[in-house]
Amino acid sequence: MGEPVESVAVIGAGTMGQGIAVAAALGGARVRVHDRPSVVDKGMRAIRLRYESAVEAAPGTPHAPLDELAEPCAALADAVEGADLVIEAVFEDMGAKLEVYRAIGPVMGSSSVLATNTSSLPIKDLACAVPAADRFVATHFFNPAELVPGVEVARAPETSDETVRRAVSFLTSIGKEPIEVGAGAGFVANRLQLALFLEALNCVRDGSATPEQVDAVVRRTFGFRLPAFGPFAVADMAGLDVYTSILETLEAAYGERFTVPAELSDLVADGRVGVKAGAGFRDYTADEVTELLASRDERYRRLLAAAGD
How many angstroms separate the CA atoms of 9 and 6, rounded? Predict the structure, then answer.
């Protein structure tokens, strides 16, 4: 069960399956891609273009020709048999995924890991159709999968620690950053992303901005900072007392969806207002504060230079 992942079967040759196949091939894994014949042929053409584009963008980095790493498989059994890791990347529909699992079960190896790329479906419900649920795990890639570094990893109630370890090890080996999260609907990324989208829509609905203006605000203000720091780190640097004051104003204008949460009120009441106090959502030494702020400014300068606009 503890063998490293060297061969991967990707089930589904659509946009996400293509990106996952490219990411695996770029990491040196051997990949077999399965879908309906008409779909898999089209998918392989897209995979080739995406692979070649990634290789061209990294001159000097050795990569084997795609033909040595990836191949299409018209038959599901041909793709799955002997694969160390099977990644399901079919349409986001419970029935479609369960049907695929039932077909994979009889041909999947006794030590193979089955991973789903679901972005929102509860993994505990998907696990009911998997013959060996202890070897089932969610590996949620983001589009384009060959470029976005983070991958959410979530376990079903039956998933073994060894299965998670093998999935994390594989993702790390192909240059990804696996982040283990809870298995609730939408995991973490989509809960955050869709919450932002709904409030963005509210801004358009109430006439505060056009969709284009909202996009510009996100890109050039708080969104500019997010590649360097997550929301808790940004809050600590801004000041939790400042956040509290802003939320009180927003609640007065827009209602209870902006009510100051108890977690925030408690921190502020305890004097944990962020970096300036040496404590917020986490504790900071004086040296850590100095290093954090210097690192922040340097990261922002690099982001500004990289954006080029």
Answer: 10
Q: In 3-state terms, what secondary structure has residue 116? A: strand
What the block records as the tokens of 198 is 């709904």
Is beta strand 7-11 parallel, antiparallel or unpaired with respect to 150-155?
Answer: unpaired
pLDDT of residue 2: 60
Provide CB contacts within 8 A for 241, sequence distance 6+: 268, 273, 274
* pTM attached to this predicted model: 0.92
The candidate with the shortest Cα–Cα distance to 69, out of 98, 30, 39, 14, is 30
Alpha carbons 150 and 169: distance in angstroms, whole number: 14
- Parallel, antiparallel, or unpaired: how do β-strands 136-140 and 150-155 relate? antiparallel
Token pair recorded at residue 35: 């879908």
Contacts of residue 6, Cβ cutoff 8 Å, sequence gap at least 6:
29, 30, 84
Q: Which residues contact residue 111 at a Cβ distance below 8 angstroms, ignoring those fewer than 6 apart?
A: 1, 3, 84, 135
Tokens of 87: 């990644």
- Helix (H), strand (E) at residue 113: strand 113-116
3-class SS string, 234-288 = HHHHHCHHHHHHHHHHHHHHHCHHHCCCHHHHHHHHCCCCEHHHCECCCECCHHH
Q: Could you tell me the two tokens for 111?
A: 């030590």
Residue 157 pLDDT > 60, yes or no? Answer: yes
- The answer to whether residues 158 and 134 touch, using CB atoms and an 8 Å cutoff, is yes
Q: How many CB atoms lie within 10 A of CB 151?
A: 26
Residue 74, amino acid:
A
Stretch (H or E) spanning 8: strand 7-11
At residue 309, the pLDDT reads 64
> 């929301």: which residue's tokens?
231
Residue pair 273/289 in contact by the 8 Å Cβ criterion: no
CA distance 138 to 117: 6
How far the first Cα of the chain sits from its last, in Å, is: 49
